[in-house]
Amino acid sequence: MTIYRAPVDDMMFLFEKLKNNSHYNSLEKYKEVNSDLAKDILEQAAKLTENLILPLAKVGDETPSKLENGVVRTPPGYKEVYKKFIDDGWVSLSCDPEYGGQGMPKTISSFFDEMLSAASLSFKLYSELSIGAYNCIHRHGSDSIKKKFLPNMVKGTWSGTMCLTEPVCGTDLGLLKTKAVEQSDGTYKLTGQKIFITSGDHDLTENIIHLVLARAPDSPSGTKGISLFLVPKIQVKEDGSLGARNGVSTNSIESKMGIRGSATCVLNFDDAVGYMIGPKNKGLNSMFTMMNLERIVVGLQGLGLSEIAYQNALNYSKERKQGKSNTSKTKNGADLIIDHADIRRSLLNMKSIIEGERALGFWLAQQTEVSLHHKDNRIKEEASDLVSLMTPVVKSLFTDMGMEITSDAMQIFGGYGYTKDQGIEQLYRDNRITPIYEGTNSVQAIDLVFRKLVNKNGDVINKYINLIKKDLKINEEKIKPFIKKLDQNIEILTKFSDWIKEKMKSSKDDVSAACNDYLKVLGLVATAHAWVKVLEVSYKDYENNKKFYEEKIQTANFFFNRVLPKAENYYLTATSGSKYIMDFKFN
Amino acid sequence: MTIYRAPVDDMMFLFEKLKNNSHYNSLEKYKEVNSDLAKDILEQAAKLTENLILPLAKVGDETPSKLENGVVRTPPGYKEVYKKFIDDGWVSLSCDPEYGGQGMPKTISSFFDEMLSAASLSFKLYSELSIGAYNCIHRHGSDSIKKKFLPNMVKGTWSGTMCLTEPVCGTDLGLLKTKAVEQSDGTYKLTGQKIFITSGDHDLTENIIHLVLARAPDSPSGTKGISLFLVPKIQVKEDGSLGARNGVSTNSIESKMGIRGSATCVLNFDDAVGYMIGPKNKGLNSMFTMMNLERIVVGLQGLGLSEIAYQNALNYSKERKQGKSNTSKTKNGADLIIDHADIRRSLLNMKSIIEGERALGFWLAQQTEVSLHHKDNRIKEEASDLVSLMTPVVKSLFTDMGMEITSDAMQIFGGYGYTKDQGIEQLYRDNRITPIYEGTNSVQAIDLVFRKLVNKNGDVINKYINLIKKDLKINEEKIKPFIKKLDQNIEILTKFSDWIKEKMKSSKDDVSAACNDYLKVLGLVATAHAWVKVLEVSYKDYENNKKFYEEKIQTANFFFNRVLPKAENYYLTATSGSKYIMDFKFN
């Protein structure tokens, strides 16, 4: 069984001390969300995740969701905890008060996302997609649709899904075949098969609201002919009560490497009644509202799983004795493995990545709120550009690092780490979906270079780099060595960006073969930037909390010495071009 | 279900064209092992692994070995295939003809190790440890012990184990507690518990010969009081027939992340009769004969699993259509994903590592044979030093790369890769034990810097570097750019080695915190060295097999452009020292 203690102190440090984004601070909406409220919420969230949700992780892995006579049964205990979860209002944390939500900002809800992911990603997924679907309906649905569906989704008595993938189309949605035929009453009837539908069916809620991409018979082929539909599992009458079963059935559920508590379904739609959401043939745009926010949350999943893996590895290192350290004073027997330099290196590597990511995630949460709610359109758009640039980065970087960290944590457990008893290998298996779903990490990298980087005449990356440079104008002498290292890497990022822009004209394959590396460089620079903001506070506020800040400074030190310098190698190897790759004849 | 085609062509290329090690070629023992014989064996081995053993992988994962009423049952089908396996003499491939073996060199048997690992690592493990135990008994056992036990082990009707680990000691064998009390007849009675015993019990053979590390009551504590004992599961009478059950029982078997077909046992020894092997209190030395050869085989496991992962990813890339490539001519629909630059980059990355490793493994197999069988003691010892230097490198590098490759292969399958249907995620889970067992990869790195590097006044690494430099004196102009790159990295390796030697005097923690990185640098240089040998033949023999050699040259090109340059970053970050790591106060 794993242990988990929600890192409320670090979260509160960020919330209180890094809340220096003036645009965020000027948001009327969140004026009353002060530190006391944040702390209260995070402490309640910590109790919930540590005590009630954590035990569900192992249960879900050992007793996966299963399909019985056409009905999906969640693992033992899920139902009871889910009831408490919605009764206490956790689904509604970030939702609009108009529909019964608590209206909390992402600067709080993303910490909750991290905690939930750490405790049990499988359990989390049952409400996560509800929020995704909620966001999409909230933004693109008509008033009557919103009134009819949102209150129960916010309450959590109904859940939601995103139905995109089909057997022949995952990454490439242009190929999708599900048909939506308009009826005389303005509704549609949908027919087709969707696969890999997270929480596609389950027994936790009274109804499930599917958001389905489909093609009308008169729509063009490719991505320009895709519309978005709301398809309830059980039809909803005018008065809001449940009616007849809709034409949606569960064909099968996947047997997976991890997140086995989560039901990943193949859904059949047979003349299922649906309602169009947003304009016809613009379904992909509407869906991407949801997808983009969701991609950031997937990044936070990687962060949460990294945190719990780190905590367990640290804990084990303090219990397990093996061998003697280089400066051992032990006469008989062995030292704790945490006294060994190599184990310490591995633990600090995890910690320096995790805390840098958390700071970056917090920065992004602020930007996201500004992009959604700022009054000034120019400021809103600037923030939106930054969010759009960093979304693929956070999704990929946090989940890739999640693999590195959960794997390194296993390694610290040695042979025990490979057995099911310790729970550590499950973290690794659970996290392994995160670099795949919501667009594989390579798809994120392609999105970054071919969409985000060329947006607005390619000026977005320069704006971001200038923003960092502005943040580096700090007078504290002790930060100078850190800034110098970051400067060198900004230089690398700049050269790499220029190279990408140049190759975009002459050889797109060069860009494609370099995009994963480019994303990593940008991710490392962004994390270092977040670290500098943490360092700035750490030195300024040093005397008020020496122990805490000393730890921050040393952890940053590790990041700047051993993690950040990886950027250069990504740049040098990636810019070796692609001719020799494209010319290769695979047997 | 995965596909697998044993890479006999590449193996035969190495066997025929890289057999230019004059010391190896002068071994009397293998004079008759010519290309025809090698090809015949490898083709038979290919048939066996592709047709009979490959299907056992999935079966073993879905129906793991289980303990029923004190007896371990292997997965369905294992028994039948094992019978054919031993009837056809595969266990005995590399064993001494004196005991019924076929006496084939490691230049052939290590290819067979790779194939078996690719097809089903779980199945392989039932005979792998038998060979380990055979090697140990063959080297250290008395004549009467050898006569009594080896013939049936060579035949495969008896199997073997290595019993080292106990609940409190894995890496640190000095802590071991199993007791061995001498009896009046010169035998010992062993009492204690051993854990993580691969093939500790099963139903494939009539008897199991355990090699057990234990401590006599009058032996000192620590590693200097450990002796090695042979403990049969069923006692063997003087005439060689089976007698009474010995005091060895299976307490439980582990539920593991992967290699679920393999039975990993907790064994209880209760006054079990054992025979001392080798001198008293020198058990660790004797066991290390077995361990070192075994560590190389673990490296080959990583290579085998990499190969099958690559083959499946390549195959899928040629079937799956998604999105349009940068130079697409497709009007409607999508291109094969193998047309996408990023997928090609990923596939070539795998291929360039795999083929480089295979060449390095072949080089090491030659060196191993020279180290075991050369008449000239000086030559024998020189080879032995090289084998000893490269053993931790091959074990760690091949298994770490195995993780990278099996993971990248999954990534190419997208969501399908995460489901159990494709079999690709199993390769990843199965391979995940290889960086852990037979000494974690960090333990290998510690062994490399603290033992191997300081051997013979630290001259071993210089000898190795000089050997490479000698091999780089090639006149072919086209190889020059490759050699230049390797030279730069030899420079890095040299500086890194000097740094390690220096720090060994002043700060061992600096060395410990750098050892994993050092191993990686040495591994990359060693693989590049192997590639240069392949390139030399490829250019010389070019006209005779253009297609094959062109592919080799292009694959090498990828390795030198995108893989080898990683060495520099390992060097730069690792030499940042350890003070900030050792000073850190973990909460």
Description:
The structure is a homodimer. Chain A is globular. In chain A, the strands form three sheets. In chain A, strands 3, 4, 5, 6, 7, 10 and 11 form a seven-stranded mixed beta sheet that branches. Chain A has a two-stranded antiparallel sheet with strand order 1-2. A two-stranded antiparallel ribbon of chain A has the order 8-9. Chain A has helices at about 10-15, 20-25, 35-60, 80-85, 105-140, 145-155, 285-315, 340-375, 375-410, 415-420, 425-430, 440-450, 455-470, 480-505, 510-540, 545-565, 565-575, 580, and strands spanning about 65-70, 70-75, 160-165, 180, 190-200, 205-215, 225-230, 235, 240-245, 250-255, 265-275. In chain A, α9 packs antiparallel against α12 (about 440-450) and α15 (about 510-540) packs antiparallel against α16. Chain A is about 55% helix and about 10% strand. The two termini of chain A are about 45 Å apart. The longest helix of chain A has about 35 residues, at about 375-410. Among the domains of chain A are: about 10-140, Acyl-CoA dehydrogenase/oxidase, N-terminal domain (Butyryl-Coa Dehydrogenase, subunit A, domain 1, Orthogonal Bundle); about 160-280, Butyryl-CoA Dehydrogenase, subunit A, domain 2, CATH 2.40.110.20; about 440-585. With about 575 residues, the first copy, chain A, is an alpha+beta fold. At the A-B interface, α8, α9, α10, α11 and α12 of A face α8, α9, α10, α11 and α12 of B.
